[in-house]
Structure formats: C-alpha cells, structure tokens
Amino acid sequence: MKRFAWILPIIVLGSLWGLVEILPISIPIMIAAGVLFLTLGRRMVNVPGTSMAMGLVVCLLKTYAINFHLCNLSGILSVAVSFDVLASLVWRQDVRTLPAAAVRGALTCALALPLFVGAVLAFRHPYWVAGGWARIVDYAVRDILPALLLSLVVAPLGLIVARRLTEPQRVPRWVVPIFSAGAVVFAWLAATVRFVERVL
Asked: In which region does residue 95 sit, left (phi positive, over 0), alpha (psi from -120 to 50) or beta (all else)?
C-alpha cells in the first residue's frame, strides 16, 4: 500500500474514535470503542505505527474539543500503544480469525493498564498519586475489566466490518469516500461545538 493511502484510514478512524471520546459515556465503552477502531484500522492498514498514529489523531481532537487533560490523553495513548505493540510484535501477520482478534482486543486492555498507571504516576498526576494503590485497583476492576470483556466482542466485530469494507464487490466504490469524508467532517464539527461551549 502506498504511503499516502495510509493517511485516510488513520484520519477517519481516529476521528470517529475521537468522537466517542468527547461523548458523555463511561470509560469502559470509550476503551472498547478504541479497540474496535484500532482493530478496524489495523485490518485495513497493517503497518506498525499506524495504531499509535490513530491515537494521536484522537488526542488532537479531544484536546481541541475539551482542552488538555494529561489523564485522558495518557489513557488514549496507552490503549493505542498497547494495540500497536501486540499487532506489531506478537501478531506480526494480520489477525484474520475472530478468536485471535478477540484475544488481542482483551490483551490490549490488560497491557494498557500498567502503561496508563506508569504514565500518570511518572507525571505525578495528583488524582492518582493521592488515591494510591487503592484507586488503581478500583480503576482496574471498575473500568479495565469491563472494557476487557467488551473488547472480546467488539474486536471481532471490527474485523468483520473491515472485511466488508476491504472487499470491493460488497461495497460500491463511491460509498467509502463519501462515508469517510462525512465521518471526519461530522466528528470535527462535533468537536468544534464542544470547543465553542468551552470557550463561551
């Protein structure tokens, strides 16, 4: 795949994941949505680093919409980095079976936990430092465990959707470009609404 062809899935899927991140929904659903979009993206562009690039798009959109929050950005990047590490090192070949996708999705959540905790403690985030290990254990049980279980379902779903999108005979050629442009515009318009609400 030519390099310029990597950009579109990264921007589109990163923007859609970012849209989920600015909605008033629970952390497990946000994490599971990240796993869904990362699985979709890696099936469409199986290149190391693209998952982290998607995470950066999400961080950019969320920072624009809601302002900079180290805790939120650490969470997004920990999921993106974990997925990229697993997809690039453990599963070097594209994961094409649904059980393997489910396992990779769940392991992404498991690996993201120590990365996230390490980041917020390294930067001395007051909320996490003050809460100590009790807060970290509570976060693991209340948020990461449900996200892990959800990822067992959404990762295979992402693989199924990606298969349909990458098989031209199933999707008319004009659908993907129109959907892609519409999704990006909608996500960034929603972020702009949140930005205006914040500054006003």
From this structure: beta
